[in-house]
Amino acid sequence: MSDGAAAAAYPGLATKTVVAGVIDGHNVWRADLDAKLTTLEGLVGPQGLGAGAVAVGTSTSLLHVPHDADDEQWGNDSTPGAARRKLDPRLREWLAFANQKVGEVATLARGLASGRDAVADELRASSDAVASRVTAEGVRVPEVRERLASLTAGDFTRGAYAERAAAQQAALGLPLLPTTTIGSFPQTPEIRRARAQHARGALPEAEYTSAMQAEIRRVVELQEQIGLDVLVHGEPERNDMVQYFAELLDGFATTANGWVQSYGSRCVRPPILWGDVVRSAPMTVDWSSYTASLTSKPVKGMLTGPVTILAWSFVRDDQPLGDSANQVGLALRDELADLEAAGIGIIQVDEPALRELLPLRAADQPAYLDWSVGSFRLATSGVRTETQVHTHLCYSEFGEVIGAIDALDADVTSVEAARSRMEIVPELEAVGFARGIGPGVYDIHSPRVPSVEEATELLELAVKSIDPHVVWANPDCGLKTRRYAETVPSLENLVSATKAVRATL
Predict the structure, then answer these.
(1) 390 catalytic residue (yes or no)
(2) Nearest CA-CA partner of 124 in 113, 111, 139
(3) How far apart, in whole angstroms, are the C-alpha atoms of residue 440 and residue 494?
(4) Are 63 and 71 in contact (CB under 8 A)?
(5) Of the listed 67, 233, 445, 469, which one is catalytic?
(6) How many distinct structural domains can be found in the chain?
(7) pLDDT digits (tens, 9 = 90+) for 167-184
(8) How confident is the model at residue 10 (pLDDT cuts 50, 70, 90)?
(9) What pLDDT, in 10s, does the model give residues 150-162?
(10) What does DSSP say about strands 86-87 and 266-268: parallel, antiparallel, or unpaired?
(11) Where is the Cobalamin-independent methionine synthase MetE C-terminal/archaeal domain (predicted)?
(12) DSSP per residue, 197-248
C-alpha cells in the first residue's frame, strides 16, 4: 500500500499488523529515507491504519543482496589486477547491502515511532547521498546520450536472411550439420589459479597472457583432433560471463566480497551498473584474433548479450531498464565491429536470461520483449551480411518467448534440447522459424557421457522436422563446469553422430 487512503479501504486490516516493505530487498541502492518515511506516515496517518498497526520491513528477503558494504575495499589502486577489487569511493555512500538495509529499516521504524526529529541526521545524510548520484561524473555521459538519441530504425535491422545465409555460406564453406560448442571449455584448477593470481597482482600481465594463450592453443588443438567444424577459444580468461565484461566497461563496478547465491551451491558477485555504459577499449578481440591465428577453421567470437548482462547485475534505478540495455547494446555493437574487422566471421552473443526477465504480468510483457529484442538487434545489426551472428539460450520455457527468439533475427540460435528430447522443435515449426538452429544434443549439466546412438537419435529427430541445411550440432550449453575426462568423449560422440546423420541426408 502506498498511502493511508488505500489502507483505509480495507477495514479487515484494522485488527492486523501490516508490514510495509519500503526498503528494496532486490537491489543495492541506498534508499531515500525521507521519501520512504513520508510513505509510512501516510499509512499510519489520520485516514490510515494507526501508528501501532504498521511495522517497517524490506520488500523481500535479503538473500538477494550482498552481506555488508563495509566488507568492500574502497579507493583507487594503481596496481594491475588489485584495482579491480577496489570500488570507487563515491559509490560507498550510494550503496546499501543487507546490513545497511537493516539499518535503514531501524531508522525508519524509529522515525515513525518518535518523529522526524529523532532521525533528522539520518534523513539528511540519505537525501545528500541520493542527490550526489544525480550529478556525479559518469552517471550521465553526454556522448552516450547523444548517440542513443540519434539511433534510427535502420540501426536495429539487417538484410534479408536468405541473402545473409548465402553470403555466409560462401564465406565460411561450412558442411551440412556444422558442429561447434557453445563457447566455454572446462576451467582447470591451474587456469583458475593463474586468473586469481593475476587478479591479486601476483602474476605479471605478460605471464598471465602467456598462460591463457597456452590454454587456448591446447583447446584449439583438441577441437581440431575431435573434428569440430567451428572452433572457440574456450574462454579461460573469463571469471564469469557477465563479470568479465563488467570489469571492462565504464559505468560498472565489481565487488570483492559481494557474493549472493545463484542456484544450488553456486554463488556469484553481481556487478553494479551505476552509470552510463562506455566501452573504452576492445574486450575480446585479442583473444579471438590469437585463436584464429592457430587454425584454418572458422573461429567463433564470444560475447554476452545486453539482457543477460543486466539480468545478472544490480542495475541502476534512475532510468528505464530498456535505456540501460541499449547502452550495453551500443558497447557490444562496437565490439562486434572490431571482431569483424579482425577477421572473425562468426560472433555469438549469448542471451540465456531472455526468458528469465519476462514480467509475470501479461500486460507488462510486450514492453519488455520490445526493448529486450531491440537491444540485441542494436548490438548485432551493424555487421556485414557475410558475418554470421549466433545466439544461445539456456534452459527455460522457450514456448513462452518463441516469438521473441524469432524476432532476435540471429543467423543461428542454439538452445537446450537434449533433456527435453527436442521438445522445442514443434514450437519452432509453429512460428515458421527458418534460420539456423542448434538444438543441443547432449546435456552438459550431467557428468554422464551420452552415447553416439543417443546423439544420433536426437539429431535425427531434429532433421525430420527442420530443414537439415539450417540445423547445427552442439551441446546444450557451455562446458566451463565440466571436466575434460567427460567432455572429450562426449564431443567425440557428438561428431560421430553428426557424421552418421550426414551420411543419411
Answers:
(1) no
(2) 111
(3) 10
(4) no
(5) 445
(6) 2
(7) 999 999 999 999 999 999
(8) low
(9) 999 999 999 999 9
(10) unpaired
(11) 177-499
(12) HHHTT-S-HHHHHHHHHHHHHHHHHHHHHHT-SSB--B-TT-S-TTHHHHTT
